[in-house]
Specification:
Number of helices of chain A: 19
Radius of gyration of chain A: 26 Å
Number of helices of chain B: 6
Order of helices and strands of chain A: HHHHHHHHHHHHHHHHHHH
Largest sheet of chain A: none
Oligomer: heterodimer
Distance between the termini of chain B: 37 Å
Strand content of chain B: under 5%
Helix content of chain A: 55-70%
Largest interface: A-B, 33 and 32 residues
Number of strands of chain B: 0
Structural class of chain A: mainly alpha
Shape of chain A: elongated
Helix content of chain B: over 70%
Chain lengths: ~500, ~130
Amino acid sequence: MATFGQLAAVADGHRSEVHEALRRPDIAVQAGRPSSVTELGRLARVLTRYTDRISRGFGLPSDDGASARDIARQAGASLRHATAYLDRPTPDADQDTSLAQSLRAAAVALGCGLDLLDTHLPSPDSGRAPTSVAAVISAPDVAADLFHLIGDHATTAGQLAIKSGPASRPAGQFLLRAAALTGMFPHDHRHETGLQAVSLLEIPDRIPPEADEDRDQLLTGIDASVRRLDASQAEGSVTTWRYLARAATITHELDLHLVAMLRLRLEALGDPQSADRLWPVLKTMNRMSSRWRTIARTWNELTAEFHTPVIGPATDASDLVIRLGRLGYTDPTWKPGHRAQPAPTDPAQLAPTLSDVARLGLTAITTLGTCNNIAARHRHAINDVARIRTLKNPKTSPIGGPRKHGRREEIVRLRYHYPANHADGREVISRLAHLMREIAPEPDPATTLALRSAALPSPAALASADCPASSLVDGAFGISPPASSPFRQPADPQRPSPRL
Amino acid sequence: MNFTATKPEPASVLEEVYADLSRTKALITRAIDRTPDGYIRLGFAEGEASDALSALRVAPSLPSTAACRAQTMTDAVAGMTAEDITAALDQIAATADRVCAALIGLAETSPDASDVVACLDAARYAGRLREQFE
């Protein structure tokens, strides 16, 4: 699947063609051709689309990134001025020069890249909600990557425009100004942001679990379930909430089992320090485990008058449980039940090398992220219960005693345990993500993107901001960005470090 | 002593089933809390038992004495030893089977549509509960 990085690389290839052309003796003639000027205008407009997106914070609520938005606004204004000098009708007879073609190709690739990012972002028209990748796209260090990209193209385009004749020459100054503005934003080439790995939002098809899947098939299947669950934003019925709470509880316990095995494996691989760093993670996960149980059991006690069928997400949640279990236990046909074989997989077989530990750590992180998304959507869940409670005022019950359409104390219990687990879950995911990034030898864009989108708060979580955030500030996000950066905003306790 | 040649009253069947399911649920809950991987294995089973019970609670023919009797069954489970629990867990598949058959049988003869819905709904959960113990 095409990634943003591939599109940016294609755009850059065409940009370097233009760059080469700048040195040719006939460049003034070529640049002045109407088709060249028109294509320059097209490129400038695409760059303006980028700055517009950044200046609006990609349509996401955010407290940081004010300086990025400001720079984007100014650069955007400059690009618009440039466009005004480049818009002119192309005579039909004018042949496409190779210069014009290169410019056009660069603009198309960049436009396509932006469309690709857009599939992850909220859209007011279609009512589309942002994906977990959206938080990465809108992070300040990704804006730095994008500014770098815009700056490169604006510089080349500006140099070309200056040689394009008196009518369009002023555009060159504006393009170069935009390049200078975007160049002001600090950018670290070595810092991997994950932007390059962003691909079109595609909800994978369900892969029904088969017996005897090997480790990589299990991991692929888990990945598909996680992405399907994260994409399912349908309003759940009470039955679905209840089922998801159970599945999240089991998923969480299986993750606890997995992380405990990874700890053993790290010790065996001669990295006791990393292994020790998993103790606080396991401790927090234990605490979360009993809270998830309380949540699931509270749902068990809540009567849903009519048992609407368990839909969509429940199947994916069940696939996830089955595959996580088959990863953690030796039985290749494992499924939950009284007769489930409890023999755990040999950690050495599960994760022979450190990079396998990191790979499985990533699976633990993404599946915990799914549980956390379920916790984050607790507001909907509790509102659904409260609505039933209002509609069906329980006066009488055939068996006496209060009918349980969400009694007050049960709702209060859910209101406490969901946010508490959500906050603890963020801490656990963040600690694991830091550790796995240190263990993984090369920070490749795909892993970086996966780790970051799991660790950054999902936009849905930001929307339900009543979660206690105190546990986020005390050292959980220990890696801080370089202090020298003049554009660094004060850290907001709600948002972890974008440098993760 | 009743004339047992005729079919038992729906109320007494429902009370019986409700008590059986309550006991089953209490057994599963105790089994879960006894072992570290308890919830992984039996979390869904506990859920199915709860769902079956909550489906039954809306049956108009469920007598008011059912809750009390269910509580007695639940309390008895609290006093069971670990060995008793292990032995009782092996009986759950049979219990779920019996419950399922009783509920479907009752639904076939019940004149009250609400009872039919509640019984068949509960039977579905009981069937899924049995699957967890196969």
